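User: What would this chain look like folded?
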Amino acid sequence: MKIITHPLMALMLLTQILIPQAIAQQPIQSPRGIALVIGNANYPTAQLHTPVSDAQEVAAALSEVGYQVSFAKDLTNNELRAQVTSFVLAANNLKLPLIFYYAGHGAQLNGTTYLVPIDATFSNASSIPNESLSLDMLFDAIRDLDGVPKMFILDACRNNPYGQTSPTEWVPGLAAPTRAPRESLIAYATDPGNIAADGIGLHSPYTRSLIKHIRNPGLSVEDVFKSVRQEVIDYTDGIQSPWENTSLTHPVVIREPVQIIAKFVDVDDDAILMANGVEALSWNLNGQSDKAIRLKSGENQLEVKIYNQRSYTGGIPPWGHKPEGWHYTLLLSDSLGHQILKLQSGENEPPNNGSRHGHLFTAASFKILVDVHSPALNITDVDTQQWNR
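Assistant: Here's the prediction, encoded as structure tokens.
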């Protein structure tokens, strides 16, 4: 793959191009939201494989998309409560969208979900309120944050290691929420009352999918979790089905959409910009107007297509006319208005338009890579002479 580095002036034969290698968005001046990410794995008698690596990768992903993240692992009961207290204080001060992620052992008792610290003993069911943290306590602590989106993600539906001590009192899995605050979304790795897989690699099936989709720009949280659900169902052959409960009233995205601004100037006869196989900008429809084009994570294929409607008709003027050429200029800017690409090409009185006469042909193509780990864009594989081949 050929990457164009910054700055570059090339293809002066009818083509001018200016491309920086990596076009980074401006550094985030203030956080998009606040997150507390916890992974508990080192239980004395019931160790788990993936919660710490799950939590570490979720923390990295949320930090990359602009969240202020606190990460903690293997917390005792006192440490867990202290982390939640600090998180609640920060949430109340910032009043930004918040995400609470927990991976580890969880349990339900009498319809209440409890997050299990690593020093819990649970000699009997009645000890659980004092030896763990109930989800209801967290709900109550942030209940007054009206209008602030609140997301709780629990990859904690593992098998309850303490259930054997009081088998008649424990219910498998976690409980459906009953006291969640308004403007909240509670996401479970599987449906209430069922068990989720811990995983055999670095990540559980649920978090493996989650960390991919929260990095995807412009996805609503509902679409994030729909995509996660489908992937987990497919991966586990339908045994595990993630589940959410939501009272969100407005669209919420975890990562902002990544956009470029495109504009054609000085075009003859018509020019179209295709983005990922879809028409994104047209000279005849949009003229010299700016047009925002949304990009997806990873590779985006863009093509400049030209329609040259007139050609040589034979004879000597005034009975005929000379071969008529074509030209275009395309400008691309980032979302902040900084120019990232200029393409300019054409033909003047070509001896033979050939297959380009009366047809829509590709004049140039290039790729824009949206980094899933940063706000940077990379322009690669620029071919401004496709029309000549």
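The longest strand covers residues 258-268. If you want, I can go into more detail on any region.
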